Amino acid sequence: MKKILVPVDFSKIAENAVKYAVEICKRLGSELVFINLISTPIPWKNLPLEKENLYPETKIKISDTKAKLEKMVMDIEKNGIDASYSLVYNTSIDELHKYIDPEHYQLVVMGTHGEVGIEQILGSNTFNTLKRSKIPMMAIRENNDFRLMNEVIIASDFEEKSKASFDLLFDMAKALKLRIKILYINVPYNFKETPEIEQMVNSFVENKVIDRIDTFVINALNEERGIGIFIEKYRPDLIATVTHGRSVINNLFSPSITEGLLSNFDLPVLSINMNPK
Fold first, then answer.
1. What are 136-185's pLDDT values in tens digits?
2. pLDDT the model gives residue 254
3. Residue 52 carries which DSSP code?
4. Same fold, 3-141 and 151-273
5. What would you report as the CA-atom Rg of the chain, rounded to the nearest whole angstrom?
6. CA-to-CA distance for 104 and 58, rounded, in angstroms?
7. Quick one: which of 216, 141, 225 has its CA closest to 182?
8. What pTM did the predictor assign?
9. What would the CATH number be for the domain defined by 151-273?
10. From CA 158, how far away is CA 184, in angstroms rounded?
11. pLDDT per residue over 227-240, tens digit each?
C-alpha cells in the first residue's frame, strides 16, 4: 500500500477519517494523499491567469482551500509520514469515484455521518463512493471515537468468487498487525450445515501463515442482522466485508449491508466491492 487517499472538506467528518488514515500510514509506511473537489463556475485549470480576477470569490475560495490543504500536509509530515494533496477543479464530491485510480492508490479512507439522503455533505457521498470504488475503502463514522486498531473481523460468504478479495483483506489485516477473526452468517434462505461451513472456511485459510484464526458462525435471518449480532457481542475495532453489488437474497454481501453497518454501529468498516458500478 504505497498511497492512501483521503477525501477532505475540512469538516469533523473528514477529521475523524484522517486520524485513522494516519495510523494506517504509520503501520504500513504509506504516503497519505488528501483530495479536495471544488466546484468552480468555469473550467478553472484552463483559465488564463489574467482572467482569474473576473471571479474574485472563486479565486479566494481556491486560495483558502490550498492554504488549508498545505497546512494539513505539514501537520501530517510532522508525524514522519509522507503527504501530499490533490485539488480538483470544476467538479463535485459525487464525482469522487472518477479520481480513485487503482494504479495510483491502494486504499480510500473516507468519513461519513452514517445517514442516507443528506445532501451536499462529504459523508452523504460515502455510500455512493463505496458502490463505485475499484479499490478497498474504509469508511469512518463522524462520531466514532478514534482508537488504535488491534482486532478485525472479516465477514465473507466464502464462495470461490470472493477468494481474491478475501485474500486482499486478509493480507491487509496482517500488514496492519491486527488479530484476525473470521465470520460466516448462516441464513435460512441458504442454510448450510456445520461440516459444509467448516470446509468452505478451511479452503480460504488453509495456507494462511498466522498464529491463530478464530472462526465464528452466526445463525440469523439475514447477513446484516447476523453481523450486527456479532458486533454487539464482541465489539471488534474494525469490520471488513467483501461486497458483490447484488441482492442478499442470493446470499451475497451487498453494498446495502455496508451502509446498514455504518448507519447502526460506530466502528470503521473496510469494504471491497467486487462489482463496482
1. 999 988 767 677 889 999 999 998 888 998 999 999 999 999 999 999 99
2. 60
3. G
4. yes
5. 20
6. 29
7. 216
8. 0.87
9. 3.40.50.620
10. 8
11. 999 999 998 999 99
First CA to last CA across the chain, in angstroms? 24
Distance separating alpha carbons of residues 119 and 124, to the nearest angstrom? 6
**Domain 3-141 annotated CATH 3.90.1300.10:** no
C-alpha cell at 169: 483483506
E-assigned strand segments in the chain: 3-7, 31-38, 83-89, 107-112, 137-141, 151-155, 179-186, 214-219, 238-243, 269-273
Q: Where are the domains of the chain?
A: 3-141, 151-273
Cell representation of residue 246? 447484488
The amino acid present at 22, given as its one-letter code, is V
CA 27 to CA 21: how far, in whole Å? Answer: 10
Which stretch of 148-152, 252-256, 262-266 has the lowest confidence by average pLDDT?
A: 252-256
Element (H, E) at 129: helix 126-132
Enter the C-alpha cell of residue 57. 470569490
Burial 261-273 (b: 16+ CB within 10 A, else e): bbeebebbbbbbb
Cβ neighbours around 157 below 10 Å, total? 21
C-alpha cell at 85: 494533496
What does each C-alpha distance from 264 to 143, 194, 251, 261, 270 come to in angstroms? 12, 29, 21, 5, 15
Q: What mean pLDDT, rounded, does the chain reach?
A: 84
DSSP β-ladder status, 137-141 and 31-38: unpaired
Q: Kindly state the percentage of the chain with pLDDT values over 70.
A: 88
